[in-house]
Amino acid sequence: MAMPRSVSLLMLVTVAAPWSVLFGAGGLWLVFSGPVVWPEARMMCLVGGITLCLLGQHVCCVLIADRVFPRGGRSVGWLVEIPSCLMLFAGCFWFCWVVFDALAATPAS
After folding, report:
1. Neighbours of 68 (CB within 10 A)
2. By the 8 A CB rule, do 91 and 31 touch?
3. For residues 55 and 53, what is the distance between their CA atoms, to the nearest angstrom?
4. DSSP state for residue 5 in the 8-state scheme
5. Are 53 and 22 in contact (CB under 8 A)?
6. Which tens digits make up the pLDDT trace of 20-79?
7. pLDDT band for position 109 (cuts 50, 70, 90)
8. Residue 1 — very low, low, confident or very high, per pLDDT cuts 50/70/90?
9. How far is residue 103's CA from residue 45's CA, in Å, rounded to a whole number?
10. Who's near 72: CB < 8 A, 6+ residues apart?
């Protein structure tokens, strides 16, 4: 039994939209409130929050917009999806670098 496209699209949007909104809202919270809560990790909060916002945008673009508007221009979609994906990877690599650097640092005695 095949599911109609409208039902599967509704289910996908129902699952992906809150996921995207939570990533975006969490990123905005981390950018604006994170440095106040954790002043010693100000830069990590900023980069992590921007990365989370980009992740929410990417989830929305890939899982919702591409399927709701299937005949949308690929050139416009790629102008949004590719840079956000590259910046998302850059933010993740930067965050991993900071974490590994902190783990490798010798504690001050």
Report:
1. 11
2. no
3. 5
4. H
5. no
6. 999 999 999 999 999 999 998 888 899 899 999 989 988 888 888 878 887 877 777 788
7. low
8. low
9. 18
10. 65, 66
For residue 34, count other CB atoms closer than 10 A to its CB. 20
By the 8 A CB rule, do 24 and 49 touch? no
* Alpha carbons 59 and 3: distance in angstroms, whole number: 23
What's the token pair of residue 83?
């840079």
Give the C-alpha separation, 27 to 9, whole Å.
26
Alpha-carbon gap, residue 47 to 88, rounded angstroms: 10
Considering only residues 50 and 4, tell me which one the structure prediction assigns the higher pLDDT: 50
Of 8, 9, 44, 50, residue with least CA distance to 27: 50
